[in-house]
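Bumping with the actual sequence this time:
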Amino acid sequence: MENSATAEALIPRFKLGKILNQDQAGRRITLLGTIDSLPALLIFERAAFPSTDASLESLHASLTNVNNLGANDVYAWYLASIKHSSDAVPDLKLNLIYPCTETHIKKYSPQQARMVVETPRIYAQYTRPFMQRKREEGRLNWVFNIIEGRTEQEDVILRDSTNPGHDEEGFLLLPDMNWDRKTIANLRLLGLVERKDIWSLRDLKKEHIEWLRRVRVKIIDAVAQLYEGVEKDMLKLYVHYQPTYYHFHIHVTHISSEANATQAVGKAFGLENLISQLETMSTPSMADVELTYALGEAHDLWTEVFLPLKEGKKV
């Protein structure tokens, strides 16, 4: 997808195969289909309501097919439709993954989650080699394209490489694909570090504490300056384990954003808490601690490692 026009032209060519998943209380639906015979995922999500006075007046005026479902005392509830005009505020946000892989399909499929305990031995013997295989499959090309300035440069909010003598400390800040780039209360950003030696939180060591502190402060300061009404104590910074891809990155969200499964216990590890753990733990590296986290049953790490271990079979 080289530019916006090319990307927009893909949507009409999507051919539905089946509904893959419906979540977030029915506000998001994931469709599996094809574009030019190649597999694609198209994700529909209800967009945030406009907040300006003019937009809200227009929203109210556009209501049609109002149907009362019930009433009791001072309460009444309805179903209604919105009559669209040519200048209507978009009410859907679309995400397209094309061409998608089997890993993408598994990620967006409904699946039972499991809590797993990853000991330092399991990490070293099974998980680390698993990460290595995934990295060697070329799934980080899109990350390196951004870091090395080949793609998505118009989306980069901040590129920081300002610590003299520490070239490995640079990072980029850009919008998360799940943010509509307008609704501040649902702000979602992504911090990509330039260094390639840290794949996940497992690679963090005591020697990284000051670096993590500097990155945290720079991100918070930058976001507070860039977005009106956002103060430093309105931001949450966390990392995922297991992450979707094995290049260290930091998620930044507004504290008012609706906490979904990606911010839940067993998935999100607060950056400040990670720094504190690094400071106080007796071992030098996060690779040496036991971690408990959630995995979906369709995740390759569950099927290849933790399920066989649970069943007493050879991995």
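The tokens above came from a reply further down the thread. The longest strand covers residues 63-72.
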